[in-house]
Amino acid sequence: MAPLATPPVAKDHRALRFLTAGSVDDGKSTLIGRLLYDSRAILADQLDTLEKKAAGAPIDLSLLTDGLEAEREQGITIDVAYRYFATKQRKFIIADAPGHEQYTRNMVTAAAGSDAAVVLVDITKLDTTVKPVKLLPQTRRHALLAHLLRVPSIVFAVNKLDAVDNPGEAFAAVRDALLDFAERAGITVAEIIPVSALRGDNVTQPLQADWYDGPSLLQLLERLPPTQERKDGDLLLPVQYVAREGEGTGNQPRTLWGRIAHGRVKAGDSVQLFPSGQTAVVAEVRLAGEVVDVVEAGQSAGVVLDRQLDVSRGDWIATPKAIHEANRFSATLAWLDTEPAAIGRKYWVRHGNRWVQARITGIESTLDIHTLEAREAHQLHVNEIGTVTVETQQPLPVEAYESNRIGGSLIIVDPASNRTSGALLVKSAG
Amino acid sequence: MNAPLTIQQLLPELDHTHLDWLEEEAIFILRETVAAFERPALLFSGGKDSCVVLRLAEKAFKSKQADGSYKGRLPFPLLHVDTGHNFPEVIEFRDRRVAEMGERLVVGHLEDSIKRGTVRLSHPLESRNGHQTVALLEAIEEHRFDVLMGGARRDEEKARAKERIFSHRDSFGQWQPKEQRPELWTLFNTRIKPGEHMRAFPISNWTELDVWLYIARENIPLPSLYFAHPREVIRRKGLLVPLTEVTPAEPGESIETAQVRFRTVGDMTCTCPVESPAASATDIVAETLKVTISERGATRMDDRTSDASMERRKKEGYF
Lengths: 430, 319
Hints:
The complex is a heterodimer.
Chain A: E1 16-21, H1 28-38, H2 44-54, H3 69-74, E2 81-86, E3 91-96, H4 104-112, E4 116-122, H5 137-148, E5 153-159, H6 167-185, E6 189-194, H7 217-223, E7 236-238, E8 241-244, E9 254-259, E10 264-266, E11 270-274, E12 279-287, E13 290-292, E14 294-296, E15 300-305, E16 316-318, E17 326-335, E18 346-351, E19 354-367, E20 374-376, E21 385-396, H8 405-408, E22 409-413, E23 420-429
Parallel strand pairs in A: 1-3, 1-4, 4-5, 5-6
Antiparallel strand pairs in A: 2-3, 7-16, 8-9, 9-15, 10-14, 11-12, 11-16, 12-13, 12-15, 17-21, 17-23, 18-19, 18-22, 19-20, 19-21, 22-23
Chain B: H1 7-10, H2 17-36, E1 40-43, H3 48-61, E2 63-64, E3 70-71, E4 78-82, H4 88-101, E5 105-109, H5 110-116, H6 132-143, E6 147-149, E7 166-169, E8 197-200, H7 208-218, E9 229-236, E10 239-242, E11 255-261, E12 274-275, H8 281-290, H9 295-299, H10 309-315
Parallel strand pairs in B: 1-4, 1-6, 4-5, 6-8
Antiparallel strand pairs in B: 2-3, 7-8, 9-10, 9-11, 11-12
Helix pairs in contact in B: 2-3, 7-8
């Protein structure tokens, strides 16, 4: 890794959303506190509260993030907290995810919306004299979850380097172990960065050490790309909301609103509706309250068709013949409910804007996060990740999650409790 | 007067596509709310955050005219909980905006809850801010609203930082922070049982600075209270307490006139202004860039009582 001659500037000024993950006490809260503190996002009254608590000792930056009473009581992070800060080059949204295994569902929540994941590794918990270094289960679990959810950039931050005798050697050993694990799991690593969140080394200020010439964590975050939508290829638009102009007769033009999953659309394009299969020509496209020339992936677009067709929320608008429907598919399932996943039971699933009934017809395997091997399984318990087959009551235009997040993601909801029980990531249809 | 500064002059390093992105996300959430529920309402207090949400709702549901105004009607009413201790400028602004836009306004009066006996004040000048919850939940029940959209932001406070975009409330109107539903991608789980409701927060990801940048960019009208004006105040415990009939001077305190503006407008009994010469939204953007005290720290008396005061009130159903 070559030293950075000039600070890189992100080409896209959208906020970068990243999550922080890692085991309990790996220093996530301190790292976030440090990022906020060093980038001057902490205001005087908030600092004042911390200084009073510290009573003369150095302030505890981790106290900035735990916002719930139960978290302060127990000294752990239960739920995702969102934090905001900006540098001269970029705005950031941090999803501070909990480390406890029992709160994996919240880690999945944080990962589903993130452009990058920073997985913390506490070097003091590892024996770096025995090679290869054995990583902690939560490091593997969080990296795997981020990878499964296709968080575009995965970064490891090796923390507490101030607390080891020979940081250069220890870092190199952990780095090798992380690279080896990532390679076996098929994870592409954006960067492995040494830090001391407590002291602030290499967080916002570059590390002064002869054994490291890479970027600081903040320098890296400033140049990571935000998630890119696929603007090329076929159109896929889930209808979110049907708006009628004015009130009364029912014959007014209707605008079909939805966020475009991929592709682009303009007036004159031919489209096909799903599930009806009817075709139409686009008369007009809109963005917010205005008619525009073209709308594309990532935008909440309004489409007005040249004829009155029966279209409602949950339907899809697509390039003709582009939709491939299926009512059986294979998927990765991250189970988030304390009640285990039951084969044969009816659940609700949401795909795009459509709710349909579905059942898990088979559980093929669960992922052993220690060996990274698929183990045969018949049940899926809370916080487990498995491969399942799903059958839906109506066909859905599912796509592989790997190629499209919107077409390939579903949530599964328990009809008795209305709890969101799992996240489904489509592997393949049929 | 000098020509107003543009956002680019104030923050040359950022090109502000992030504002477009925040706007896009908020409009998406507003449409989702209206599509997924039967009886939505928008919390509108006349405060800056709800004025921003109101503009976003116009963009989501109306069409823009050549003169820049928006044609049509929102597919939901606006709801305001009037504590009886609101600043008169804000109530006047609220009614004027609603009339100009031709929208429907539903007002829940805390006074009515006091008359009904569902709210008991411990003393007549007690802060009514916390009691709003009762009047709010009564209004939800009376009008059978199943979702309330609001302008809460996660940067406001630690408990708010934890809240989902779609936040479930049980049949007592309560928030259960440990039982929050995972929020995956934008596949919001909006399923509720009868008697329960949801809160939807389209500007969750905005900061105070984003709100002011957007107000400046979109020229959003606000109550006069937000801009610098002379006001009679009392200096008390590091805050500037506005002199009103419900916040009189205590013995030994002196009254002075200061040039102030409000960073947030709430109940008169607990909302304080800050000293400022900022007379326009762009002035306020410039000032917010330099500010060193959080919005609530500078302006709210009731959040200072304990680290968890907001969380406790939210669990009871506070917005």
